[in-house]
Amino acid sequence: MVIFLQILFFALVLIFIKFGAKLLLSFAYYFRINLTVLSLVICFFAAYLAELCDLSSITGAFFAGIAISQTVFKKKIRRNTETIGYSLFIPVFFC
Q1: What are phi and psi of 72, to 5 degrees?
Q2: Half-sphere exposure at residue 68, Cβ-oriented, CA atoms within 13 angstroms
């Protein structure tokens, strides 16, 4: 059962990388939703789904980052999340 969930996770991630991230971020941009917050929510949600499938949470966050980096909004999102990353996420990771 666990292997089935892991295969399903990777299949859904592949679909999300190809279609979902571009569509979701374009939708958010059209309706003026904060792209930085949405990208962090996507990252945390992917990490949570990976943990549900008995994978490491970093696996889900990594694939979410790949999906977001394939969009036209990557420079804006990177610029806005850089401060949060250097001040919060990286120090917590290395503690």
Answers
A1: -80, -10
A2: 24
